[in-house]
Amino acid sequence: MANAKSAQACGCPVAAFQKMISGKYKLRIVWDLQDGPKRYSEIRTGLLRGSSGSAVIAPRVLSRELKALTEQGLIDRKDFGVVPPKVEYRLTRKGKSFVPVIAAIRNWGARHLAEANADQMVAAE
Amino acid sequence: MANAKSAQACGCPVAAFQKMISGKYKLRIVWDLQDGPKRYSEIRTGLLRGSSGSAVIAPRVLSRELKALTEQGLIDRKDFGVVPPKVEYRLTRKGKSFVPVIAAIRNWGARHLAEANADQMVAAE
DNA sequence: CGGTATCCTAGTAGATACTG
DNA sequence: CAGTATCTACTAGGATACCG
Predict the structure, then answer these.
(1) In terms of Cα–Cα distance, which of A42, A39, A30 is closest to A80?
(2) Can you give the pLDDT at residue A118?
(3) H/E/C letters for each residue in chain A?
(4) Which controlled-vocabulary keywords does the entry list (chains A, B) (predicted)?
């Protein structure tokens, strides 16, 4: 794959979307941040609810995804500049506008993918 | 949080969704099939509209994605069993139910990702 | 606490050639 | 026409150690 701009300019938002959410935890991160700002370790811990095959998330991975989401303008990073470090991540307006899309995905997934165990409904979040 | 038996049943449809659409062309394929059945080469040609950096799609890749979508129950493969070969792919009911989700994605993407170049709007399909 | 620096593995996609 | 076989390049993700 050559270019980064080709996906956006091709008139196909789907490809751009695919690239935007490429990353194992990105959708979950945005979803988890809808309730308010969270710190780095809170996000990491939150992602372990129903962990997807791994017992712990490599910090390198989480760091990269958070950075990507920040550059894509979905989340905002707030460094308090104190010791010990305190950093909060929160949704931007763009990020908040994306939450309903994730809700649609979750809604569909709950109906078609989690037939046996719809423990927490979308509305119950 | 209720109990989770498997990765899919973890109350996180998002992860299952991510896995389901993992593949460069899956969303596009489903989207393109909403107008009716298409043959293998029609799908390939259709995917080249606004090609994402490549002039041609490796048959191996398209084949794998079609197979995966079939196994996931989103599309159905109909082999006419003639020579020369004729195979049609069409959406299943599950696949059709997924179209609105893609529409939501496209809609969001058109507003937030394709600000400069919204050549073909969602409604213009 | 919130990362970064390395190293490693596995999977995804592309190119190309070939087949029923 | 609709794929399969093979080989290669790239990258996402994981493990681990360490730093500001």
Answers:
(1) A39
(2) 42
(3) CCCCCHHHHCCCHHHHHHHHCCCCCHHHHHHHHHHCCEEHHHHHHHHCCCCCCCCCCCHHHHHHHHHHHHHCCCEEEEECCCCCCCEEEEECHHHHHHHHHHHHHHHHHHHHCCCCCCCCCCCCC
(4) DNA-binding, Transcription, Transcription regulation
Q: Which two tokens stand for residue A73?
A: 């303008």
Spatial separation of the C-alpha atoms in residues A46 and A30, rounded to whole Å: 12
Report the pLDDT value the prediction gives residue B116, as an integer from 0 to 100: 42
Q: Which CATH architecture has domain A23-124?
A: Orthogonal Bundle (1.10)
Inter-chain contact A52–B15, Cβ cutoff 8 Å?
yes
Question: Tokens 């896995």 correspond to what residue?
Answer: B19
pLDDT digits (tens, 9 = 90+) for A23-76: 999 999 999 999 999 999 999 999 987 665 567 899 999 999 999 999 999 999
For the whole model, what pTM was predicted? 0.84
Per-domain residue ranges of chain A: 23-124
What tokens does B55 get? Answer: 């002039």
Q: Which residues touch strand D (CB under 7 A)?
A: A 1, 22-24, 52-61, 64-65, 84-85; B 39-42, 58-60, 63-64, 66-67, 77, 84-87
- B63 CA to D4 C1' in angstroms comes to 9
